[in-house]
Design brief:
Helices cover about 85% and strands about 0% of the residues. By secondary structure, the chain is mostly helical. Helix 2 packs antiparallel against helix 6. The radius of gyration is 16 Å and the shape is flat. It comes from Oppiella nova.
Length: about 110
């Protein structure tokens, strides 16, 4: 059973536009967390929507540019790079919170998104 964002991406076929939209949604959610007093639940739900759209739009693009006999390797490399980035960012985020606090952490995330 397909999820709603996946259906939207597949129907429109504009993966790059959806990646851009997901970045804007994520930027908005981190901005809400950093600079407003709005309930964090709203920002976290918005961030979940942004990440869902990103995954639905970004991962299928690999199949558009890589030949079929190299597709498994391409997905493996993509997963490895993603996991390496997640591991490094989590360590950096912990150090930033310990040294500077949560507002600086959100600015750090905003910088990466931009």
């Amino acid at each position: 059973m397909q999820t709603k964002p996946r259906i939207l991406v597949d129907l429109t076929g504009r993966n790059i536009a959806w990646v851009f939209i997901s970045a804007i949604i994520t930027l908005l959610s981190h901005s809400i967390l950093a600079f407003t007093f709005i309930n964090p639940w709203f920002a976290m739900v918005l961030m979940g929507i942004g990440y869902s759209i990103l995954a639905c739009a970004l991962w299928p693009m690999v199949a558009f540019i890589i030949s079929e006999h190299q597709l498994g390797t391409a997905y493996g490399v993509m997963q490895s790079v993603q996991n390496l980035g997640l591991a490094c960012i989590v360590l950096a985020a912990g150090a930033i919170v310990d040294l500077k606090g949560y507002i600086v952490l959100e600015v750090f995330f905003l910088m990466w998104i931009c």
